[in-house]
Write a structure and sequence with these properties.
single chain, about 140 residues, STM4215-like, 3 helices, 5 strands, about 45% strand
Amino acid sequence: MTQGILDWLDTYDKINEIGETHVEELTENVKNIALQRTGKTTIQKWLNGGRYELQFMLWLKNYSESDAQKIQSLGILDNFSEWAGVQCKKGNVPYLGDNKSVYNITTTNILLMTKNQDGTIGDYGIQLYIDYSEKEE
């Protein structure tokens, strides 16, 4: 499922302009993104499947020394949040695998989480939730 979400993220042109996308952790380089899976919740269980929510953090490493740089970084994640909502409404959602259907994609909590020792580079995060159903065969 993670690969399907990475493929979906790759369709967002602005993310590709930022830098490389990684899984689970950011690199030391400035301007890179990482997708980290943080959980899965069962919303409703059925006899032949269920409805679930996948939880991810999308991390961005970027400059954070000035307020203008912080605003720019937060804006990148704001734009991603808007893009994700539009894509969901259009039905352009990640492929999670056979017998899985995405119902909704939401984002919350855009934050500056950590900064390096001299305060010039920060790790920004946004929570990504994917609500989907899965039918068992």
